[in-house]
Amino acid sequence: MQLQSMYQDIILDHYRNPHGRGLRDPFEAEVHHVNPTCGDEVTMRVHLDGDTIADVSYEGQGCSISQASVSAMYDLVIGKSVTEALGTGEHFMTLMQSKGDAAVAEGLEDELEDAIAFAGVSKYPARVKCALMSWMALKDASARALSTSSEAN
Ligand code: ZN
């Protein structure tokens, strides 16, 4: 099987059967992010247990890349500390800036799990924002959640 078509299958699978979708309680922060160039939207809630991401719940609409990206991200961040999760987000950003460089993708394969399937998207600058929207929303929501929980203490 061609790598490219395997990646395509992973993205479509997350799009059709999104992991963790739905808005849940409790949560410390909720954000709404849009990618106006494509019409993608996501509403995301983050629930922290200390500085560990206990839950990320979301609803969204838009293209398959944007929605599959939230689902793949969900699998990567639950149970991680905010710092670790945002570190993974930085690596995903590196992948999205790789312009299809296979060596970059290879080096990130273990850490990014299914999210490595977005490697092909990095060749299409117009679609990179679709894939990054979920991670931008996570960064925003977890920063707000951390400041809410430190105010409460
Ligand atoms: Zn899109």
TrEMBL record:
This is SUF system NifU family Fe-S cluster assembly protein. It comes from the Bacteria. GO terms for biological process: iron-sulfur cluster assembly. It holds the Pfam family NifU_N. Coiled coil: none annotated. GO terms for molecular function: iron ion binding; iron-sulfur cluster binding. Residues 6-130 form the NIF system FeS cluster assembly NifU N-terminal domain. InterPro entries: NIF_FeS_clus_asmbl_NifU_N.
